[in-house]
Write a structure and sequence with these properties.
This protein is of the alpha/beta class. The protein contains seven helices and 24 strands. The strands form six sheets. Strands 5-4-1-6-10-7-11 form a seven-stranded mixed β-sheet, with helices on both faces. The protein is elongated, with a radius of gyration of 22 Å.
Length: 338
């Protein structure tokens, strides 16, 4: 199924207590919003638009060449951000549009594809909401189910939610919206009487009240947790590293002490590479089969050939190219060299 994606990512993230906007903070060596873009690419989105704060035009993203950037000049809420992004999509863009959030970096292409399968299975669907269990929380918007199982009639934002609805278990982690529905109801969204913001989640209520079916699927809470604090940022980094370690183990890499090895999102290790304890891959690293990376090495921007022995305590910096059979030992530092 052909789809596009709009990623609102203009929020300041004030709870991180940082001059850097939330979506530019990093896990696995790249910005949070880059992870969301990668998931959208992996799910086959033909056009991807990120909606960013114009104060930070100069900050570069890993996937800048694969996306369109637009800027929300005045912050008016998520619906206004989506409007900015939607207007940047070409007129002949895909019939379905993902609305994803730039602070949910662990979302996977597989989860997004599950949403598209719902759209294919139920052609009458206007909106598919990606939901997760958030029982016991009061600072997240909640889904209000409709009568038919698996359907939803509204999403109530946290600041607008009444005490009687705070016990609703499911919260919103993204949406897949039929293009014609998005185009029609974006214009009808009114500002919240509490905050004055325009919420994209209102599109569910508007579509449902107009007689359209809105559905939801439940996702994994660990995958769909958003980031608003430094503690949540650290927790997401931990989950990302656990996922990467398992991926490399499944691909035939030996990690002698997996919990001590740290990866970037673009670390590529061929099968039969052995990584000893306390190794850090800082990004853009390719290691060929048969190589042994000794303890306490730090490696970035490097090409490492087959059957190399590196370390312990080696520092390989950007521009390093170690050919097959090379051996480097203790406390060797290399950069911009073959």
């Amino acid at each position: 199924m052909f789809s596009s994606a709009v990623i609102p990512a203009a929020g300041p993230g004030s709870r991180l207590k940082s001059e850097i906007p939330k979506v530019y903070h990093k896990i696995g060596g790249v910005a949070l919003v880059d992870h969301v873009v990668a998931a959208a690419k992996g799910a086959g989105c033909r056009e991807i638009v990120t909606v960013l704060n114009p104060k930070h035009r100069d900050i570069k993203l890993k996937f800048d060449s694969d996306i369109s950037r637009v800027y929300q000049e005045i912050p008016k809420g998520t619906a206004d951000a989506v409007r900015c992004g939607f207007e940047a999509l070409p007129d002949d863009s895909a019939p379905w549009v993902y609305v994803l959030y730039g602070d949910i970096p662990l979302i996977t292409p597989e989860t997004l594809l599950k949403m598209s399968k719902v759209a294919e299975k139920y052609p009458d669907t206007a909106v598919i909401v990606l939901a997760m269990d958030a029982s016991g929380t009061s600072d997240l918007g909640k889904l209000e189910p409709a009568d038919e199982e698996g359907t939803v009639k509204s999403i109530i934002e946290a600041k607008d939610i009444s005490d009687s609805r705070k016990t609703l278990p499911l919260c919103n982690a993204g949406m897949l919206i039929r293009r014609d529905i998005l185009e029609k109801f974006l214009k009808e969204i009114k500002p919240s009487p509490v905050t004055g913001e325009f919420y994209i989640t209102e599109i569910v209520r508007l579509a449902w009240e107009a007689g359209h079916v809105c559905r939801y699927i439940k996702g994994n809470s660990e995958e769909l947790g958003g980031i608003n604090t430094r503690a949540e940022l650290a927790a997401s980094e931990k989950k990302f590293q656990e996922r990467e370690r398992q991926k490399h183990l499944d691909n035939g890499v030996t990690l002698v002490a997996p919990e001590t090895v740290f990866f970037s999102c673009d670390t590529f290790l061929e099968s039969d590479v052995t990584v000893h304890p306390y190794v850090v891959f800082l990004g853009n690293v390719h290691v060929k089969s048969g190589t042994q990376i000794g303890p306490f090495c730090v490696i970035e921007g490097s090409e490492i050939g087959a059957n190399v022995q590196a370390g312990p305590f080696s520092r390989l910096r950007t521009g390093t190219n170690l050919l097959n059979e090379v051996k480097i030992g203790n406390f060797v530092e290399i950069k911009n060299s073959i």
